[in-house]
Amino acid sequence: MREHIEYFRPTTVDEAVAALTDEAGIIAGGTDMMIDLRSGSFKGSRLVDVTGIEELRVLKEEGDTVIVGAGVKIEELRSNELVRTKLPALAQAANKFAGLQVRNQATIGGNVGHAAPCGDTHPPLILYDGVAEVAGPGGREMRPVAELFSGPNRSALKAGELLVRFILKPDTAALVDFQKIGRRKDLAISRVSLAVLADKNDKGLISRAKVVLGACMPTTRRMPRTEEFLNGQAPSLAVFREAAGLMAAEMIEVTGRRPSLAYKEPAIQGLLMRMLLPLIRRF
Amino acid sequence: MKITFTLNGQTASGEAAPAQSAVRFLRDVMGQKSVKEGCGIGECGACTVIVDGKAVNSCLMPAAQLEGRVVETTEGLEKDGQPHPLQTAFVKHNAIQCGYCSPGFLMNAKALLDHNPAPERDEVEKALAGNICRCTGYQQIVDAVLDASEVMRKGE
Amino acid sequence: MEPLKYIGHDHVHPRVWEKAKGEPVFAADMAPDNCLVLKALRAGRHHAEIVSIDVSEAEKIEGVAGIFTSADIPGRNLMGIINKDHPVLAVGKIRSAADAVALVAAETEEIAQKAVDAIKIEWNDLPALMTIEEALAPDAAKIHEKGNVLFNRVIRRGDVDAAFANAAHVVEKEYDTPCIEHCYMEPDAGYGFIDDDGALAIVVCTQNPHYDRGDVAALMDLPEEKVRIIQAVTGGGFGSKLDISVQGLIAVALYHLKRPVAYRYTREEAFLATGKRHPIKIIMKTGVDKDGKLLAMHARFLANGGAYGSYGIAVVTRAAVHATGPYEIPNVDIEALEIYTNHTFRGAMRGFGTPQAAFASECQLDLHAEALGIDPMEIRLRNALKPGAVICTGQRLDESLGIIPCLEEVKPHYEKALAEWLKEPPAIPTRRRGVGLGAMWYGIGNTAAQNPSTAQIELGLDGSLTLFTGCADIGQGSTLIFGQLAAEVLGLEPGRIKIVSADTKYTTNAGATSASRQTYISGNAVVRAVSELADMLLTRAVDRLKVAKEDLELIDGTVRSKKDHSKCLTFEQLAKNLHHIGLPLKWQGYFDPDSTPLDENGQGRPYGAYAYACQMAQVEVDVLTGEVEVIRVVAAHDVGRAISPINLVGQICGGVAMGVGYAIVEEFDPGKTESLKDYHLVTATDMPEVLPIIVECPEPSGPFGAKGIGEPALVPTAPAVINAIYMALGARIYSLPANLERVMEASREAGWFERDDWFE
C-alpha cells in the first residue's frame, strides 16, 4: 500500500482516456490490480477506476451480434440469459472462471487486458469472432480480440487505451463448447482450455470447424490446420484422433519443445477428442 | 481519502489510503475483525463480505470502491440479538471447527440464500467453491446451508 | 456398550458461538492498536555463512523502534521439541531460505518492510544440499556440525531373508511422497505484552503452549514463570503450530522494547517459514505365501527433513513402526532415516509419517492381491491384526483391535460398488471407474516416549465447576470433548462446567495437541481429576445424608439418594462443607500411557492404544485428460468410543478432504510454491460424498473407552484413491500426488490413447 498513489474515478470513457497517462493503471474488478499492488509489481502512481463508467456495462443484442461491455462481470456472463443462449461457450468459460467472489468482481475487459495466456474468456471471444472497441487518445477503433495480445501477460493495448466493449457473433452450429482442464474443478487456473465450434452439413460431414486453444501458447489462438482438416470429414474417432494429433503439432510449432508439453501435448489431444464426441453421439 | 458507505445497515465512514484493500480498511479502520485475510490474493474466500448484495473477496477490492455501497459483514448477521439462521445452522451442524474461514463462508452463503432461497446441493457447493476450509471437508458446511435455507423458507 | 448420558451425544462446543458471530478471538484480531509491528528478514538463500550484518541504514528510518539479531538474545537460541537445533535468529550461518537473520520492530507494517529491505548482509555462500542424495554424499558439506543424518530408526524382527526365500510372491517397489504445506487457514499470528506479573505474555496461535513457554524462557534466559503463553483461538494447525513460529521473535522484541508488539505472517511468509510434511522416498519389499499371508517386509524410508530437526525423529520413528500397516508380519527389517537438507524444515503434520507409510504398504498389498488373484478386501481380512497378534516391535495386542470390524463395515459397500456402481457407464464417455481400499492403524500419543497430561477441576464455594486444562484446542474440539467427559462423571450438563484452557498462567501441562493424543491422554487426565472430585462429593454426602455410596448418584449439580430423591445435597452445600472441614476444592488428574522405549532393534511397546480404519474410494478417471474425480469415500473408523459423534464426522470428512488433496492435488515445490495461487486445496465441488462409519471397539485404558481420530481420518484416503485409480486405468502410480501429469503418463502407459474401447 503506497500513500502516494492517486485514485481517480472517471464517469466517461473520454475522462478515463485522458487520465490514462504512462504512470496510470486501470482498475475495474481489482482481481488482478490488487494483487499487483500487493506484490509491488504495479509501479505506477495513479489508479483509474473505470467502474463508474456506465458505457462499459452494456450487455445487449444488436442485430446479429451481441455487445458485451468491457466492464461486464464474469458472473453476469455466467448467469445472463442472453449470454447463455446466444454465446454458450462464453457462458461455460464464465462458469469455470475462478470462484464466485472473483466472478462477482472480475470483468471481461480485465481478463482480456491482463493478457494472461490462461485467460478463460479468450478462447470463446475468439471463437465468436470477437472484435473489441478500443478507446484511445486518437478516438475509437475496432480490433479483433486475437490481436489484443502480444505475448504472455503482455497486452497489445498501449498506454492510454481502454477496452470499451466486445462485439461477438453468435453461432448456432451443432457443436459449440468450451472446456478447460485445471488442477481442481473450480477456483482453477487453466492448464489447457479449448473452445470448439463445428457443424454438420446435409451429408453429415463436418463443416465450419473452429478450434481455439488457450493456456498452452504465449497467446490464445485458432488452430487453422486442425480446422481445415476437420472440415469435410465424416465424424469418427479416427478422424478426431488425427485432428488432435495435428493440433498438437500446430501447438508445438508455436511453443517449441518444453517440459510442460509432457502433459499438454496429450492433454489437448484428449480434450479435443472428448469435445468432438457429440458430433458422433449425444451423451 | 474518506469513504462513506453503509455498513451493516448503518451509515459509516473512515479514512482509507488510495490503494488500500477493503479487507485492511474494514479490519483496521472500521474494526470489522470478522473479515479475515487468509491469503490476500483472492484464493481462499476468508475475507468474503457482501457488497450491494454480492459476495466479494475484500482483499481484491480497493477500499475506494466501497464509497456509497452497501456492505455486510458477519458482525451484522445478528438481528435484534437473534442469530441469523445460517449461524444457528452452522453451529448445529458442526460446520465450524477452527472458525477462521467461517465468517467468509457465512457471508457467501448469506448472499446465496438472499438471491436463491432454495438452492440445490450442487448449487451450494458451486457457490461455496471460492471459499477454502482446511478442517471440515465441507460436508457439514453444505448441510448447514441447506438446513438454513429450509428454516428461512419455513419462517416466511 | 451401555448408553451414557452425555457421552455419545452431540453437544455444542463452548466457544463455537464466538466464531459463528465473527468475534475478535484470533490473535491478529485481538492485538492492541498501539502494538509495534514485527517483520523478520529471511535469508532468501539456502546455505551460507553470514559475514556481516549492517543495520545502520535501516535504523535511521523514521518509525523503526528496534532491530535485533542473535546478539540480542540472552539465552539459549535453539528451539525444537525433540532436538534443539533451530535458532530463532541465525547465528553465524543460515541453513535454509526461511532462516530469520534479523528482526525489525516498527510503527507500521510498511515501515517494518522498508527497514527489512534496508538491512545489508554480506554472505559467503555454501553448497546447497537440497536432495537426500546430495546430503548423503560422502563429501557433502555438513549442514549441522553433527552431520547430515539426524536419526536412524531400525526395527528388526524375525528372519527376513529366510521368509522371502519361502514366499510365493515377492514384490519390491519404490514410492515417492511429496512435501506438503499444512495450510491451516489462519496464518501464524501473535502479540506480546508485559503482564501484571512482569512476565512476557504472548498471545498466540499454538498447539503446545507449555512447550512454547519452556523454549521461550530458555531463549530469553528467564525463569518459566516470567513467560506466559496464552493460546488464542487457533485457526487450525495440523502439526505446524507445534513448532515455534512468531513466539520467539515476539519475545525478543518485547524483552528489549517493553512495549506491545505483534507479528502476523502473511500467507507467503507462512508458506516460506513454517514446517512442512516430509517428502519420503520409500523402498518397500514384501513377500506373501500362496494364500496372500504376509511373511516379510523389508523397508527403507529416506525422509528429507530440511534444515532443522523439529519433529523429524518422531516422524521417521512413526513411519517405521507403522510400516506394516494394520497387519501381522512376522519378519521385518525396517530402517528410517531423517536427513538434513537445506530446505525449510519439515516437521509434524497430521499423521507423522504414517500417511507416507500407508501409501506404500497399501499399494504393496494390492500388488500381491492382483498377482495371486485374491480380492483386495480378502487379502486385508486375511492379514489384519487379530487379538494376540504381535506387531513389528514385539508388542502383543489383545484389546480394542478394530481393524477387522472396520474392514467388515466397509465390505458391503465395497461389494455393492463393485457389483453395481462399477458396471454403470460414467456420464462422461472418456472416463473409467475404479474402486480402491486403504486401511490403517495409528498408535495414539508420542512414540515410545513419556507422554503425560495433567488436568484440574475446581469446585467453587457457590457450587460452580471450572476445569483447567493446558490442552490447546485448535479447532478439533478437545474442549468440547473434555466438557462431555467431565459432565458424564459429574452428572450435569457440559455447559455448566467452565473450561479454562491453554493459558500457562492458569493451567498445567497437557502436552502437545498432536499424535491424536488429547482425547485419550488429556481426556484420561480430565476423567481422573473429575473422578477424584466426584468421589469426594459422594464420600461427604454419605456422611451428611447417611446413605451408602453405592446408593447415591450425581445428578444435575446435586448428590442424592437414588431411592429417596429428597435426600439431596447441592454441590454448593457440599463445597461449603468440604471447605469447612479443610478438604481441597481443587483436584488433579494425571495420565501417561503405558509405553516403553524401543531398543536398538526397535523392540518395545511404542503405544498404549491404537486406532484403526478402512476407507473405500470410488473414482472416475478421464483416460484422455488425466483428470480424476473422487466420487465417494466410505470411511470406517474405530475410535474406541464415540464421545461426540457429530465431531467425529467432522474430523473424518476433514481428514478425507486432506487425504484427497494428498492423493491427487497437493504438492509443495520449494522455491516455486509461494502462495495459495500455487498451492491448491480441494474445494467444496471437488469433495466426494463421504459416508462416515463410526466403529466402537472400546479401549480399556481410554476415557470411557475412547481413543483418537484426528490423524487416522486422513491416513487411508490416499492409498484408497490410488488403488482405485489403478483399477480404473490399469496402470499404477507410485508417486503422490496422482496429479494430471502422472495420471496422464499412466494412462498413456496403459495405451488408452491408442484404444477405442473407452468409447464403446
What's the topology here?
The complex is a heterotrimer of chains A (283), B (156) and C (760).
Chain A: E1 6-8, H1 13-19, E2 24-27, H2 33-39, E3 46-49, E4 59-62, E5 65-69, H3 74-79, H4 81-86, H5 88-95, H6 100-105, H7 108-114, H8 122-127, E6 131-136, E7 139-144, E8 149-151, E9 154-155, E10 162-168, E11 175-181, E12 192-200, E13 206-214, E14 221-222, H9 224-230, H10 237-255, H11 261-276
Parallel strand pairs in A: 1-3, 2-3
Antiparallel strand pairs in A: 4-5, 5-10, 6-7, 6-10, 8-9, 11-12, 12-13, 13-14
Helix pairs in contact in A: 9-10, 10-11
Chain B: E1 2-7, E2 10-15, H1 22-29, E3 48-51, E4 54-57, E5 70-72, H2 85-92, H3 102-115, H4 121-128, H5 139-155
Parallel strand pairs in B: 1-5
Antiparallel strand pairs in B: 1-2, 3-4, 3-5
Helix pairs in contact in B: 2-5, 4-5
Chain C: H1 16-20, H2 27-30, E1 36-42, E2 48-54, H3 56-60, E3 64-68, E4 93-94, E5 100-106, H4 109-118, E6 120-125, H5 132-136, E7 149-157, H6 160-166, E8 169-176, E9 189-194, E10 200-204, H7 209-220, E11 227-231, H8 247-257, E12 261-264, H9 267-273, E13 280-288, E14 294-306, H10 312-321, E15 331-340, H11 354-372, H12 376-383, E16 389-390, E17 396-397, H13 403-419, E18 431-443, E19 453-459, E20 465-469, H14 478-490, E21 497-501, H15 518-545, E22 552-555, E23 558-561, E24 568-570, H16 571-580, E25 586-591, E26 610-622, E27 628-638, H17 645-664, E28 689-695, H18 717-729, H19 740-749
Parallel strand pairs in C: 1-12, 10-11, 14-15, 20-21, 27-28
Antiparallel strand pairs in C: 1-5, 2-4, 2-6, 3-5, 7-15, 8-13, 9-10, 9-12, 13-14, 16-17, 18-26, 19-20, 19-25, 22-23, 23-24, 26-27
Helix pairs in contact in C: 7-8, 10-11, 11-18, 14-15, 17-18
